[in-house]
Amino acid sequence: MVAAAEQSDVVLVGDPELWQRAAVLRGVDPASLNLIEADPAADPRYAHLPELAAVATAVRGCQSGRFSALVTGPIHKASLQAAGFKYSGHTPYLADLCGLAPDDAVMFFAGGRLQVVLVTVHLPLADVPGSLSTSGIVRATRAAADLLRDRLGIEAPRVAVCGLNPHAGEGGLLGAEDAAVIAPAVAELRQLGYDAQGPFPADTLFPRAARGAWDLVVAMYHDQGLIPVKTLDFGRSVNITAGLPIVRTSVDHGTARDIAWTGQADPEHAVAALQMARRLVATSRGGRTPEAPLR
Questions:
Q1: What is the pTM of this model?
Q2: Fold adopted by 73-284
């Protein structure tokens, strides 16, 4: 885990020996690293899992004011869950560490041509329709739109909401969720003052969004939103957790265990996440506004 601190800029949290080994692999002097060992007591439930101890240590540091922001790498969900981790990934776990309900933390991607928020995240596709709710769509949209407004320089974000089914349900012929669940969410968002439209068929919505028709796309499930993001913006897009009381960003890729410790990993993604964290910190503290809106 990487944390930004007041005096030292970037602090590396975790196992010092691993960080030093990584530094040597990349030709960096290990003595130049600013390292903090993870504290298992930061979350006693997962003291036996070093990567989660690092996350919890960094979160506690952000909460205390020691750190300004948290930047994470990916975690291997299957191995962690096999070891007793009860969350589907970073996002609900971070919500829990911050004293929030899991759904209060929202996975949002920004930094490239598309800004996309996910309503549901790490679910089997078969479980998505039953997991969608009007309130969940409203919650995710508000968290992302408010972040765009308050921290990324878009005063009144234009929001497009994806349908779930092909052709956004084709008037009920291809599924009832678009009319029964998603359309009421769009209506509620408009009543709350958000410039929201939809539901639109996702296959035609994303090309228009990439050309600038909207500032934010609301995707109903993981791959609906992330296939376009990673096709257009892989390496530039950053995973931001909206809805937290701390700033957290992450890379837009998985663990890639097949190339671990080979020196082949591309640092572009981590650099983008660090740069976005700095930008969010500047605006969250009432500092200068972004030089240009994120569009």
A1: 0.89
A2: Isopropylmalate Dehydrogenase (3.40.718)
